């Protein structure tokens, strides 16, 4: 059972957190992407923190969890904070393969996304 | 002359700002996207603010400037701060068509970007 855990920063503004949860829901409903489980969690300032997100995936039967930082820049949250949380949590789930990806800002698809948004201008 | 102005939040960490400038450079070099000019600017915490970015585009001969918020969430920066700056600046450039797009987090391509990043896991 393969899980994707989208990790955003988290905001005091509930709607911002909700947008990330909706992203996970939309991906779940879209299907056809090889993930049996898609969850979202937050680094801080929200109810569902990264350990909660990992636990949610584990409880749903995940044997592999891909942790994806939903961040644009390679700041300390991406380079230090999230890796530290993941390193600390791995020993608690010895039977689950937990892998951390690049942050989304590093994706080559970002160029395409920018141009798509710019072309469908408001 | 069509310009794209990528507007990021701005960071005290110079490398984060640099990443946005590099994104603009990469798009410029890539070409084949219909933009004659691509610039980056920041809402705050950086040297090149939005008025500077608009002025840079104007000085390079832009007749249309597409302003693209490089933000993931629809927080107050996206819904209030950036539109206010753009509204205030438009009368200063009566001969330039200045248009504000959605923020990148609202793009349907974001789903594809997430899956691409998750699949090419570290």
What does this structure look like?
Two copies of one chain form a homodimer. The first copy, chain A, is α/β, with parallel strands linked by helices. Chain A is built from four helices and four strands; from the N terminus they run βαβαβαβα. Chain A has helices at residues 14-30, 50-59, 76-89, 109-119; strands at residues 2-8, 37-42, 64-69, 97-100. In chain A, strands 2-1-3-4 form a four-stranded parallel sheet, with helices on both faces. In chain A, helix 3 (76-89) links the parallel strand 3 and strand 4 (97-100). The longest helix of chain A has 17 residues, at 14-30. The N and C termini of chain A lie far apart (40 Å). The model of chain A has no long low-confidence stretch (mean pLDDT 95). The interface between A and B is large, with 47 and 47 residues.
Keywords:
homodimer; alpha/beta; four-stranded parallel β-sheet; 19% strand
């Amino acid at each position: 059972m393969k899980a994707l855990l989208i990790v955003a920063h988290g905001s005091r503004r509930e709607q911002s957190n909700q947008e990330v949860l909706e992203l996970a829901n939309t991906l779940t409903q879209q299907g056809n992407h090889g993930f049996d489980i898609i969850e979202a969690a937050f680094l801080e300032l929200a109810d569902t923190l990264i350990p909660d997100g990992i636990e949610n995936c584990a409880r749903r039967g995940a044997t592999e969890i891909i942790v994806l930082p939903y961040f644009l820049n390679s700041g300390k949250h991406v380079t230090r904070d999230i890796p530290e949380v993941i390193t600390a949590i791995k020993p608690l789930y010895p039977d689950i393969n937990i892998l951390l990806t690049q942050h989304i800002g590093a994706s080559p698809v970002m160029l395409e996304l920018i141009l798509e948004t710019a072309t469908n201008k408001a």
